[in-house]
Amino acid sequence: METQELIFFATNIVLISVSVYSCIIKWFFRPKAYRAHFDRLFPGQFWVGLLFLLQLLEIPYMFEIENVKALRYANAFSLLLTPPIMLVICRKYFFPKKKQPRFELFMFIPAIVLFIVFLLRVTGTLVLSEIGRNVVIWGAFAVFMLFFVMTVNMGIKIKRLSKGIDSLEYSDSQDFSHTFAYYVMRLPTLLCIVLAVNYLCNDQWVKFVIDIFLIIVTIGFVLFTLDPWREIEFVEEKRVYNEIVEATESKSKRRMSDARYEQLRKELFALFDEKEIFLTPHLSLEMLLKEMSTNRNYLGETIARSGYKSFYDMVSSYRVKYALRIIKEEPEAKMVDIAFRSGFASATSMNKAFTAQGLPAPSQHRITPFLSC
Question: Is the pTM higher than 0.90?
Answer without folding.
Answer: no
